[in-house]
Write a structure and sequence with these properties.
heterodimer, A: ABC transporter involved in vitamin B12 uptake, BtuC, two-stranded antiparallel sheet, about 5% strand, B: mainly alpha, ABC transporter involved in vitamin B12 uptake, BtuC, two-stranded parallel sheet
């Protein structure tokens, strides 16, 4: 039986190749997880529509970059701004009217957004396979045998770190960042000291959408496919990364995402009895394990509830 | 206008109840004969279809929504992973019918215990994981199902991403009075014209037989749910939803009931999967992913959470809204034509819209409407007695 024949590949070159692969995809997952964390931190809601918002952004970037022939940098920048604006609008129209402390209706609304945006993309750009060009030059930084570090791999990793740095800087040094931290730490007290909670949360949604779009635009060229379902498994990996890092820690999101990427490409590929089709299953297993053993993840703050 | 008050158990109340039941049964028997040859009403230049296969699919969905309703509506555990159980049921039926040549109904012997067991196994970690986190884990469960069904090791049974087609047919037994009922319905003046035929082909007769089979199974499931909700365990489930700590203090065994709710939900979902296989004779792994699970949530909210009638409405709403949206190509007042998978978008918008205007769903709205006409109130003390 295949279940009992456990063997682990130990070829060092292959292992290095897989580790590099893990970093490449993991940084992308981490970046999307960062978007999830921003919304969770602010509102306590898991945004199931985050992946689809990013999908919409990717398609806008594709339409501008491939369809209209804009430079890909500019196309992605414009699509980030567009999805940020859209997310701000969504927050104002369908999220804010609900009681922010009752999370389940909000999650159901994000599920509705998931369906609506996914279908909107499929209707507008049809379901044919497309390809989004990479922002980074082709070729490798270095290669050892089968292991090679491509410019895009390095680029994604550095971009993810840069996003984390920018978010941390924004939260630590700007006024809106201060308001954001106040709201995420205690919504009622923040309101009492005169912070306008609504616009602050709106800012969080817009920022998260922009981050998610960039994460998607980094990741999709590596996956080599662009169709309306591309963000679904990515979203599960990102959720796993966010859960592993701690759902309210930006640093944890990036680290958790990279760890999930490593689990996906090193553990799942190297251990023979895990079929590689089940890499999404590995991500779900990570989520389950983290929530059971340590719900606050690696870097998250543990929640103390008064009963 | 003040609603008319009707005492519970009075003869008027009994008449209304009896009338409702008679009407329901007559309509249920008549429906398959009217739609076996699909009706094609036309509205604003769009042609819509109401066919027996959609009705059958909607009945199966109603049972799946019912499963989610027990878990989410009555017990308050939001699950986005019920498609996993539906898929398990659908595949088990498909594999046992196709590979081992069992009859469709006998596969329930396997589907029911297996899905119950899987549900209980999933329910155990769910004891520690609550609210949004449970939604997250079950979302992952839904996302992983298609890749399990496509596993190479299972290819022999599931035929991978091509999907599993089941060649075995459901043949209506000879004692079933399909022709007789058709003749009877054709004699009714206006409605009789809707059947559109004097004699059903073999395929149409199969559809009608499948309909009655599915109605029987669904009836059993709804009866089970009805009895469960009105009994002691059902009240425990509702108490846990309303106040978990309070329920625990009142002596309710949380672990038992919460895991049990998962088990019952999985059981009903698995049966719904079997019903889908009966209707479609085909199981496709990619249909049983996250979207399926979210459509179930749509059915739950649109129909009415914590409302058994709502599950029925929700099942029909998901199937027919999706289909009719895809058949709407011309919209009046809109300059351009529509094409593509609009159904999903309409369902998404419907989900958000109903969360705003009618969080209780259509069933609740209908109840409110009915209460404007008449209201059933508890019977007062018997007439002619004075307490002094």
């Amino acid at each position: 039986m295949f279940l009992f024949a456990v063997s682990i590949d130990t070829d060092p070159e292959l292992l290095l190749a897989r580790i590099l692969d893990g970093f490449r995809f993991g940084s992308g997952y981490g970046a999307l997880a960062l978007a999830l964390v921003m919304i969770y931190k602010a509102t306590g809601v898991l945004n199931f529509a985050q992946g689809e918002l990013a999908l919409l952004g990717i398609y806008i970037a594709w339409a501008l970059g491939v369809g209209w022939g804009w430079p890909i940098f500019l196309a992605i920048l414009v699509s980030m701004i567009a999805t940020a604006g859209l997310a701000a609008g969504i927050e104002r129209t369908v999220i804010r009217p609900f009681d922010p402390s009752n999370h389940l209706p909000l999650v159901i609304v994000t599920l509705g957004l998931f369906l609506a945006i996914n279908s909107f993309v499929a209707v507008t750009w049809n379901t044919d396979l497309k390809a989004l060009p990479s922002m980074f030059p082709p070729g490798d930084v270095f290669s050892v045998g089968v292991a090679h570090l491509s410019w895009s791999g390095l680029g994604i990793f550095l971009s993810a770190l840069a996003m984390l740095g920018a978010v941390n800087l924004l939260l630590a040094k700007t006024k809106v960042g201060l308001a954001f931290r106040a709201v995420s730490s205690n919504l009622e007290s923040a309101e009492l000291v005169g912070i306008r909670v609504g616009p602050t949360l709106q800012f969080g949604w817009a920022l998260a959408a922009a981050i998610g779009t960039l994460a998607g635009a980094l990741l999709v060229p590596e996956l080599n496919v662009l169709d309306p379902n591309v963000m679904l498994s990515t979203l599960v990996f990102a959720f796993a990364g966010a859960a592993l890092g701690g759902l309210d820690s930006p640093k944890g999101a990036i680290i958790g995402g990279i760890l999930v990427g490593l689990i996906r490409s090193v553990v799942v590929q190297s251990v023979s009895f895990i079929p590689s089709e089940l890499s999404v299953g590995a991500a779900v297993f990570v989520i389950l394990l983290v929530l059971l053993v340590r719900p606050s993840g690696l870097y998250g703050s543990s929640k103390v509830v008064r009963v | 206008m003040r609603p008319r008050l009707i005492a519970e158990g009075s003869s008027t109340h009994r008449w209304i109840q009896g009338g409702n039941w008679t009407l329901t049964i007559v309509v249920m028997i008549a429906i398959p004969f009217l739609v076996a040859i699909p009706l094609k009403p036309t509205l604003f230049g769009n042609s819509y279809t109401i066919g027996i296969s959609n009705v059958n699919e909607a009945i199966a969905w109603a049972v799946a929504v019912l499963g989610l309703n027990i878990l989410t509506g009555f017990n308050g555990q939001l699950s986005l992973g019920n498609s996993f159980f539906v898929g398990t049921g659908a595949y088990l039926t498909g594999v046992f019918v196709q590979t081992y040549h069992w009859s469709y109904l006998s596969t329930l012997i396997v589907v029911i215990p297996v899905c119950l067991a899987i549900g209980l196994i999933v329910g155990i970690p769910a004891l520690r994981i609550q609210g949004l986190y449970l939604a997250l884990v079950t979302f992952g469960l839904a996302a992983v199902f298609p890749s399990i069904a496509k596993l190479e090791q299972l290819d022999r049974f599931t035929h991978g991403s091509n999907g599993l087609s089941i060649t075995s047919k459901l043949l209506p037994p000879s004692w079933m009075p399909i022709q007789g009922t058709l003749d009877l319905i054709n004699k009714i003046p206006i409605i009789g014209d809707w059947t559109g035929t004097d004699h059903f082909s073999k395929r149409q007769a199969e559809g009608i037989y499948a309909y009655f089979l599915l109605v029987m199974i669904a009836g059993a499931c709804f009866l089970l749910a009805y009895n469960l909700i009105r009994s002691r365990p059902g009240r425990a489930l509702i108490a846990i939803r309303d106040n978990e700590i309070g329920a625990e203090v009142a002596g309710i065994n949380l672990s038992l009931y919460k895991a049990g709710a998962f088990g019952v939900a999985a059981l009903l979902s698995g049966v719904a999967g079997t019903m889908l296989s009966i209707d479609k004779n085909f199981v496709s792994p990619d249909d049983l992913g996250v979207n399926f699970a979210i459509f179930l949530v749509v059915g739950l909210i649109v129909g009415g959470s914590a409302n058994l009638k709502g599950s029925l409405i929700g099942g029909f709403a998901v199937i027919f809204v999706r289909q009719w949206a895809s058949q709407t190509n011309e919209v009046p007042l809109l300059g351009w034509g529509l094409s593509g998978p609009y159904g999903q978008m309409v369902l998404g918008v419907l989900l958000i819209g109903l969360m705003f205007v009618m969080p209780g769903g259509i069933a609740f709205g209908m109840q409110r409407l009915r209460q404007r006409v008449y209201r059933v109130v508890p019977a007062g003390p018997p007439e002619g007695r004075t307490d002094d």
